[in-house]
Design goal:
Elements (H helix, E strand, L loop, with lengths): L2 E10 L8 H10 L12 E5 L11 H4 L3 E3 L5 E3 L6 H4 L10 H4 L3 E3 L2 H5 L11 E3 L36 H7 L8 E5 L8 H5 L5 E3 L6 E3 L9 H5 L5 E4 L4 E4 L4 H5 L5 H4 L6 E9 L3 H5 L6 H8 L6 H9 L4 H8 L2 H8 L4 E2 L10 E4 L13 H7 L3 H9 L20 H8 L4 H22 L5 H10 L4 H13 L2 H4 L7 H11 L19
Parallel strand pairs: 1-14
Antiparallel strand pairs: 1-12, 2-7, 3-4, 5-6, 8-9, 10-11, 13-14
Helix pairs in contact: 16-17, 18-19, 19-20, 19-21
Length: 517
């Protein structure tokens, strides 16, 4: 057992209001400078939609992440010993600026210095890259809130597995829906960007697992841009270096939450520590696609287990980090309650950012259909709702059943379930069960025995349901962000002991030769 520590995150999508405060906070601190104007280390996308950069999820275009070969080994889609060498001077799969957007500003002085005339002067847009007048065609959030447009929503790569009838059903005016998907670097356990870098400039910090780029070593081959399937590595055209989200590690080391999380208006973000077994990574990423999520969860270790604690201490993990893992909100969401799921686990990077899929939108009224009657035979929750006819606008209820949600389970499974609809269904049922339980307590119009039975059907108890309710609705700042004390000095000591000062090993990583999958 090779126990290591990892800073991990959970984003609760039922709470995101799409205000982009997180994006602006990150932009003002890290990317408000020359060469980084087009970068959004944190961005918020509208789903369904093509995202930023355009169609970043379509790996047929960008060749990001890992793929499993017939013999069972995994290789990078875009590069490797031979493919990387062939594409090192010409990379056809790398996104271009038009896939993001060309950043611009306005010539505001034209409003003041224009000569007197009959027309109102305007501030013309000019490119921040070339300085020339620009015809604006797109932006970082160009498809914000456009849940039904042919150009954006209907070209969502996640529609590939949906039939034309299922797609059209999502775009009926009375059923049209959307949700927001905030994204940052996932700081993966098997990062494709690290494996693809010919210069060895990208490394994973030993003490907390944050993935960083050494600017002194980076030679701008930009293989990391292609290899990252989430497109969270960027090229700075001014400095000639690649850059990415650093998870605000200077703030973390000082005990502060990252800027995007600190500023989050919807309080959707959670951050904490996980302990994992690095010896199981190869097995996890090489597993069958329908087992990827389970194998990823198997990597995460029980921080209360005495053997895990012993091995963690032997590997240099501090007592304060172990305690942070024991009190981590991420461990509860992901491992205990099984509410958090990774985004596109099929990329095989083992992302350490988990999402609670959205149960919304709420439907105010819905007549009982043949589909819902069929669902009664399979689902006791559906039978309960249909029996009590709770689809109306009075105080009884306005919650729809899982089978009648506006978002098809297949669509959400493409995002968060590696195609497994049952995993999405289980999470949504638990969220609905907690709502039923809390409604029974606060309103009292649901039979107590029925509410408890529904909880049991989802594997929850009233106590656990109350804990979920507290952490999702009432949690204070310190409950959402459990930041361990920094032990950078111990990491540096280990680097000096191993003679590796580039950062490829460190605190929480055993001193051993570099290995690749």
């Amino acid at each position: 057992m090779n126990v290591r520590s990892q800073i991990a995150m959970v984003f609760h999508l039922d709470k995101c209001i799409g205000c982009h405060t997180c994006s602006i906070a990150c932009k003002n601190i890290w990317t408000d400078r020359k060469g980084a104007e087009y970068m959004w280390w944190n961005n918020v996308e509208t789903k369904p939609g093509t995202g930023y950069p355009t169609k970043w999820e379509d790996q047929k275009i960008y060749k990001g992440g890992w793929e499993k070969k017939k013999k069972g080994e995994i290789t990078l889609r875009s590069s490797g010993k031979y493919k990387g060498l062939l594409n090192i001077f010409h990379n056809p799969h790398m996104p271009v600026m038009d896939d993001y957007y060309e950043p611009w500003t306005y010539k505001y002085l034209d409003l003041i210095e224009s000569p007197q005339g009959d027309d109102q002067p305007t501030a013309r847009p000019v490119s921040l890259v070339t300085g020339k007048p620009l015809d604006i065609k797109s932006g970082p959030n160009w498809d914000d809130d456009l849940s039904g447009t042919p150009k954006y929503a209907r070209k969502d790569p996640n529609f590939e597995d949906l039939s034309p009838a299922e797609q059209e059903a999502m775009f009926q005016l009375e059923k049209m829906a959307m949700f927001y998907l905030p994204r940052i670097c996932n700081h993966c356990l098997n990062p494709a960007c690290v494996a693809a870098c010919p210069s060895g400039a990208i490394y994973k910090r030993g003490e907390d697992g944050v993935v960083l780029i050494n600017q002194n070593v980076c030679r701008a081959w930009r293989m990391c841009v292609t290899a990252c399937p989430y497109k969270k590595s960027y090229y700075n055209w001014s400095t000639g270096k690649s850059e990415k989200c650093i998870l605000c590690y200077p703030r973390l080391e000082a005990g502060f939450a990252p800027a995007c999380m600190h500023s989050c208006v919807g309080r959707i973000r959670y951050l904490g520590v996980l302990l994992y077994d690095a010896d199981k990574i190869k097995e996890a990423v090489s597993s069958a696609e329908d087992e990827l999520i389970e194998k990823q969860l198997d990597l995460i270790l029980d921080p209360f287990d005495e053997n895990v604690i012993k091995e963690a201490k032997a590997n240099g993990i501090a007592d304060s980090t172990i305690f942070a893992a024991q009190t981590s909100p991420i461990y509860k969401f992901v491992k205990v309650w099984h509410l958090g799921l990774p985004l596109h686990a099929e990329y095989r990077t083992v992302p350490m950012l988990f999402y609670v899929p959205p149960l919304l939108p709420v439907m105010a009224s819905l007549s009982i259909t043949d589909n819902s009657k069929q669902a009664e035979k399979l689902d006791p929750i559906a039978k309960f709702w249909n029996k009590n006819h709770l689809y109306n606008t009075n105080t009884e209820s306005i919650w729809g059943t899982i089978e009648q949600a506006r978002f098809p389970l297949k669509y959400l499974a493409s995002l968060f379930g590696a195609g497994n609809e049952q995993k999405i269904k289980n999470v949504l049922k638990k969220q609905l069960a907690v709502r039923i339980h809390r409604r029974n307590i606060t309103v009292g119009d649901i039979d107590k025995n029925t509410a408890e039975k529904i909880l049991l059907e989802t594997g929850l108890t009233p106590k656990i349901a109350d804990e979920i309710y507290y952490l999702t609705s009432l949690a204070k700042f310190d409950d959402r962000f459990n930041i361990p004390p920094a032990h950078r000095e111990q990491a540096l000591e280990m680097l000096e002991d191993t003679g590796d000062l580039k950062g490829s090993t460190g605190f929480g990583f055993k001193a051993e030769p570099k290995r690749s999958l």
